[in-house]
TrEMBL record:
Sites bearing N6-(pyridoxal phosphate)lysine, chain numbering: K163
GO molecular function: L-isoleucine-2-oxoglutarate transaminase activity; L-leucine-2-oxoglutarate transaminase activity; L-valine-2-oxoglutarate transaminase activity
Record EC number: 2.6.1.42
Family: Belongs to the class-IV pyridoxal-phosphate-dependent aminotransferase family.
Matches recorded under InterPro entries: Aminotrans_IV, Aminotrans_IV_CS, Aminotransferase-like, B_amino_transII, BCAT-like_C, BCAT-like_N, BCAT_family
Name of this protein: Branched-chain-amino-acid aminotransferase
Catalytic reaction annotation: L-leucine + 2-oxoglutarate = 4-methyl-2-oxopentanoate + L-glutamate; L-valine + 2-oxoglutarate = 3-methyl-2-oxobutanoate + L-glutamate; L-isoleucine + 2-oxoglutarate = (S)-3-methyl-2-oxopentanoate + L-glutamate
Keyword check for Amino-acid biosynthesis: yes
Provenance organism: Nonomuraea solani
A Pfam family reported for this protein in Swiss-Prot or TrEMBL: Aminotran_4
Lineage top rank: taxon: Bacteria
Pathway annotation from the record: Amino-acid biosynthesis; L-valine biosynthesis; L-valine from pyruvate: step 4/4; Amino-acid biosynthesis; L-isoleucine biosynthesis; L-isoleucine from 2-oxobutanoate: step 4/4; Amino-acid biosynthesis; L-leucine biosynthesis; L-leucine from 3-methyl-2-oxobutanoate: step 4/4
NCBIfam families with a match to the protein in the record: ilvE_II (TIGR01123), PRK13357.1 (NF009897)
C-alpha cells in the first residue's frame, strides 16, 4: 500500500489467491483510478523460468500511473514482486507444454474509501498470476477484424497511451459489434481525422509492404492515443535484426484497402503479450471488406512469431537481455 503521508510501505509478500476486503466507497471503483500491466514468464527446456522484459513493463506501469495522478511504484519493488511470485508459484507452469505461460497481472488502484473527486490518498498494489494458454497462441490462424467507424478508444489529451482500466470499458460495445459481424477484433482509428489506423483491443498492428528480403515492416507511430506496446518495440528490433527495413508510418484505412487490393501491402498482423504475433486475414469496414494478401498467415508474420517465441523459450541467444531468469522453489 501507498499512503500520502508515508509513501510505499512494506515489501512484496506472496499470499494465497483469494478475495480482498475493500470498502464500497473505494475510490478506484467509482472514478477509475486503476492502472495495470500484463507480462509473461516462459519456461525454458531446462526448467528455468524467464520473465519477458519486466523492466519495460515496470516503466510503462509508472508512466500509466503518472497520467492518472497516481504514485509511481519504484521499479525495484515491481521487479521484487515479479521475482517473488515467479519463485513461489512459477512451479505451477508445466515444463512440457510450450503453449502455456505464466501470465502476470500487476494492478495499482485507488483503495481509499472516499467519494472525494480528487486523486486518492491511498493506493494498493497487487500482482496476480495465471497459468494460461495464450490468446490465439495455439492457433496462429489469421483473424478477421472490423474497423470501428462509430466509436473511439482514446481522445486527444486523454488516457489512450496509459494502460488504465477505463480504456477497455469504453471498447466493449465496439467489440460486441465486431463479434456480431463475425470478427475477432476491433481496429481503432485515430480520434481526430478518423482515418489513420491506430491499434486493436489489446494489440498493436504491423503492415508488410512488398515481400522477400526487401519487404518493409511498418507500424503506426506512437501518437499519444495508442498504447506503446512492448511486443511492438521488440518486433521492431527483431525485424531490423532479420534484415528488414522497419518504419513507423501512418497508414489510413483507405490506403490499407487500396494497397491490399493492389498487392502492395502483402501482410498485416497484430502483436501483444497475449496475442504474440497473430496474422490478419480479412478486414471488414462497413458493408465492404478486403483480404490481406491471400487471407492466409504471411511468411513475415510467421518468421517474426518464431523469432519472438524462440527468444521467449530460451531457444536462441538473448542478445538484449530481455529475459529475467528465476529458479522456482
Ligand atoms: N494495445 C493495447 C490497448 C493493449 O492493451 C496491449 C496489451 N498490453 C497492447 C497494445 C500490446 O502491448 P504489449 O505488447 O505490451 O502487450
Amino acid at each position: 500500500t501507498w499512503t500520502a503521508d508515508a509513501g510505499w510501505a512494506g515489501r512484496p509478500r506472496v499470499l494465497p489467491f483469494g478475495d480482498l476486503p475493500f470498502s464500497p466507497a473505494m475510490a478506484g471503483l467509482h472514478y477509475g483510478q486503476v492502472v495495470f500491466e500484463g507480462l509473461k514468464a516462459y519456461r525454458r527446456r531446462d526448467g528455468a523460468l524467464g520473465t519477458f522484459r519486466p523492466d519495460a513493463h515496470a516503466r510503462r506501469f509508472q508512466q500509466s500511473a503518472r497520467r492518472l495522478a497516481m504514485p509511481e511504484l519504484p521499479e525495484e519493488l515491481f521487479l521484487e514482486a515479479v521475482d517473488a511470485f515467479v519463485a513461489r508459484d512459477g512451479g505451477l507452469l508445466p515444463a512440457d507444454d510450450p503453449r502455456l505461460s505464466l501470465y502476470l497481472r500487476p494492478i495499482l488502484f485507488a483503495s481509499e474509501a472516499s467519494l472525494a473527486l480528487r486523486p486518492a490518498r491511498e493506493y494498493t498494489f497487487l500482482l496476480m498470476g495465471f497459468v494460461t494458454e495464450g490468446f490465439f497462441s495455439d492457433r496462429p490462424d489469421p483473424v478477421s477484424v472490423l474497423v470501428s467507424r462509430e466509436f473511439s478508444r482514446a481522445a486527444p489529451g486523454g488516457t489512450g497511451q496509459a494502460k488504465c482500466a477505463g480504456n477497455y470499458a469504453g471498447a466493449f460495445l465496439a467489440q460486441r459489434q465486431a463479434a456480431d459481424a463475425g470478427c475477432r477484433q476491433v481496429v481503432w482509428l485515430d480520434p481526430v481525422e478518423r482515418r489513420w489506423i491506430e491499434e486493436m483491443g489489446g494489440m498493436n498492428l504491423f503492415f508488410v509492404r512488398g515481400s522477400g528480403p526487401s519487404a518493409e515492416v511498418l507500424t503506426p507511430p506512437l501518437t499519444g492515443t495508442l498504447l506503446p506496446g512492448i511486443t511492438r518495440d521488440s518486433l521492431l528490433t527483431l525485424a531490423a535484426e532479420l534484415g528488414y527495413t522497419t518504419r513507423e508510418e501512418r497508414i489510413s484505412v483507405d490506403q490499407w484497402r487500396e494497397e491490399s487490393e493492389s498487392g502492395l501491402i502483402t501482410e498485416a498482423f497484430a502483436c501483444g503479450t497475449a496475442a504474440l504475433v497473430t496474422p490478419i486475414g480479412e478486414v471488414r469496414d462497413g458493408d465492404g471488406g478486403w483480404l490481406v494478401g491471400d487471407g492466409k498467415a504471411g511468411p513475415l508474420a510467421m518468421e517474426l512469431r518464431t523469432a519472438l517465441t524462440d527468444l521467449h523459450q530460451g531457444r536462441v541467444d538473448d542478445a538484449h537481455s530481455w529475459l529475467r531468469w528465476a529458479t522456482t522453489e
